[in-house]
Design brief:
6-stranded mixed β-sheet; alpha/beta; Rossmann fold
Amino acid sequence: MPTSRAPAPLSATDYLKQVLTARVYDVAIESDLESARTLSRRLHNRIYLKREDQQPVFSFKLRGAYNKMAHLSPEQLKAGVICASAGNHAQGVALAAHKLSSRAVIVMPTTTPQVKVDAVKALGGEVVLAGDSYSDAYGHAVQLQAEQGLTFIHPFDDPLVIAGQGTIGMEILRQHQGPLAAVFLAIGGGGLISGVGAYIKAVRPDVKVIGVQMADSSAMAQSVAQGQRVTLTDVGLFADGTAVKQVGEETFRVATEVVDEFVTVDTDAVCAAIKDVFIDTRSIVEPSGAMAVAAVKQYVATHKTKGESYVAVLSGANMNFDRLRF
């Protein structure tokens, strides 16, 4: 798979500075950190939900996309940007482009839920459907980028994108200043956990950073275990937001340093977690958005913990309505 040329790797201190100065609040809100009371009672631990489903595009992805694009030159913005995305990053790029008056070409896999395609078009993005997976769409986007002289906005493998996502970690630690055992984050390409993990480990190294993957899309967990990036032959598409065959170079490097452990969850656990979130919030998150909650439940059951505080990041709510029948 081709790679876009990302800037040089940043140190932990560099990431801390990048997160603190990230430009995300032109488009993003500081999302709520809510107590999941019913789930907390059931698990005998304090569970908090970081509500990134509240963002204008119903996922965290606009943070990184906007931070990257806000750093582009006027010439680059005028020429336009391009990205490949299963949906949430696409909406983030489209919204950022609208805000910054830039053209945005969005290459999406043909398997993308229609709700995400429509949302991107509504934000002014030019949608191109190509391939069955993110990796296929990525290859096509790189080709279009070269042909049309556009700037590639990577969904995860870019320090400015990572730093934008890291603002979630900054908010969590500001919103919850008491004891905190662990923060659980879903992993696709690794941008979210790299940014949040880098910030948390720089400020509160006692807090565990736990990565969550689907059992059928565990590229990061396998890569870290093997000490090198692996490429999965295929990925499960139930949690389409995290269905990535290969994680980024920079996200792999950062995750190797900041992630304390990985939890893998299956489709049944994620379906149950979607229901748990609904019971506590009356909101329906997408499968990738519920992965962190599924992992908290699994972690508590495995480690038999009581009275601890955990944060699960609800990463998105762009649910394909037809998928609710699962």
